[in-house]
């Protein structure tokens, strides 16, 4: 079984990519026979996160979407066995899981809480499902939560799959987040799906 880890590298993230890449090299294999890291260069900011992630979807059984400013936990791959379409984990920021961590977490929690302690980027998804859904390239923000809302099912494990360093600024440029209120954006996406 083949896992492809997809990492878009936006403006300002070239220097931190080695940490993400090193974390992929240290992954345990568990059910996987092959792990490949696909790095999509968007350092000029011309593609945007959605297009960069879509371009990274090469032939595989599973994908893991890893942002360039995050690192994967070495044990993360053990949670894929026997799981449904997608697997998320707890959010870990600066080495700690925040007090708000909805677990177990289902679609009702997304409608109720948006991105607050529910799910976030840094997740496994079956390749065939991701290729069918694809990230919406018309969105400059909220494309991640839009993708989550279209998943037919997902599972969240109690442990983190990635570690986020909040001291590293988000990518900048035409598709950058630059002081975006991420929770507000997630709520807006969820509200669209409620309707």
Q: What can you tell me about this protein's structure?
A:
The protein has a single domain (2-194), classed as Spore Coat Polysaccharide Biosynthesis Protein SpsA, Chain A (Alpha-Beta Complex), CATH 3.90.550.10. It is 26% helix and 23% strand. It has six helices and seven strands, in the order βαβαβββαβααβα. The protein has a seven-stranded mixed sheet with strand order 2-1-3-6-5-7-4. It is globular and about 40 Å long. The termini are far apart. The model has no long low-confidence stretch (mean pLDDT 89).
Report a brief summary of the structure.
By secondary structure, the protein is of the alpha/beta class. The protein has helices at 17-25, 49-55, 107-113, 127-133, 143-150, 182-194; strands at 2-9, 34-41, 62-65, 70-72, 86-93, 123-126, 155-164.
Q: Spatial order of the strands in the main sheet?
A: 2-1-3-6-5-7-4
Per CATH, the architecture is: Alpha-Beta Complex
CATH fold label: Spore Coat Polysaccharide Biosynthesis Protein SpsA, Chain A
Distance between the termini: 38 Å
* Low-pLDDT stretches: none
CATH superfamily: Spore Coat Polysaccharide Biosynthesis Protein SpsA, Chain A
Number of helices: 6
What best-fitting shape do the alpha-carbon axes yield? globular
Average per-residue pLDDT, rounded, comes to 89
Classify the secondary structure makeup into a structural class. Answer: alpha/beta
Strand percentage, roughly?
A: 15-25%
Radius of gyration: 15 Å
> How many domains comprise the coordinates?
1
* Number of E-type strands: 7
């Amino acid at each position: 079984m083949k896992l492809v880890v997809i990492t878009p590298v936006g403006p300002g993230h070239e220097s931190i990519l080695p940490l993400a890449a090193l974390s992929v090299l240290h992954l345990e294999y568990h059910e996987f026979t092959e792990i490949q890291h696909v790095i999509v260069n968007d350092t000029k900011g011309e593609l945007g996160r959605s297009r960069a992630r879509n371009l990274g979807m090469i032939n595989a059984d599973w994908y893991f979407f890893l942002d360039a400013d995050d690192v994967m936990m070495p044990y993360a791959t053990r949670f894929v066995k026997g799981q449904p379409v997608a697997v998320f984990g707890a959010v870990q920021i600066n080495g700690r899981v925040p007090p708000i961590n909805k677990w177990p977490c289902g679609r009702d929690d997304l409608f109720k809480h948006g991105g607050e302690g529910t799910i976030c980027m840094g997740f496994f998804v079956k390749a065939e499902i991701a290729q069918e859904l694809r990230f919406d390239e018309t969105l400059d923000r909220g494309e991640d939560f839009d993708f989550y809302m279209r998943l037919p099912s997902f599972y969240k494990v109690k442990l983190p799959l990635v570690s986020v360093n909040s001291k590293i600024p988000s990518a900048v440029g035409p598709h950058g987040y630059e002081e975006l209120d991420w929770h507000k954006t997630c709520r807006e996406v969820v509200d669209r799906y409620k309707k």
